[in-house]
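REVIEWER CHECKLIST
Item 1: Sequence provided? yes
Item 2: Single chain? yes
Item 3: Sequence as submitted:
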Amino acid sequence: IKLLSYPGLEREAWLEDHSLNVLLKGMGGSNLKFSVPKGLEVKIGERIVSNSKPIFLIGQVEHIREKPSEPLKEIILRIPLNLRHLRFVELLP
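Item 4: Structure as written out by the authors:
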């Protein structure tokens, strides 16, 4: 069993405000990242949700990294809860 934020683990998700499918990559420590074109205006606090039923909140944009020489900007998000405080976990196939 691996958490969503497990380093290198990839999962598709939905950038809610832009109706855009994104590929999340785990960074560890409840952090995930994905990339979008520089022209797409993403704001701190935007929600990323699952793109499967039932829909659940995966995280919110916490930081945006942008380099002038790169065509994409990297979006860092954080899972909005402390996983250490979970009492129950449901395993899905």
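Item 5: Key structural point noted by reviewer: The chain is about 0% helix and 45% strand.
Item 6: Recommendation: ____
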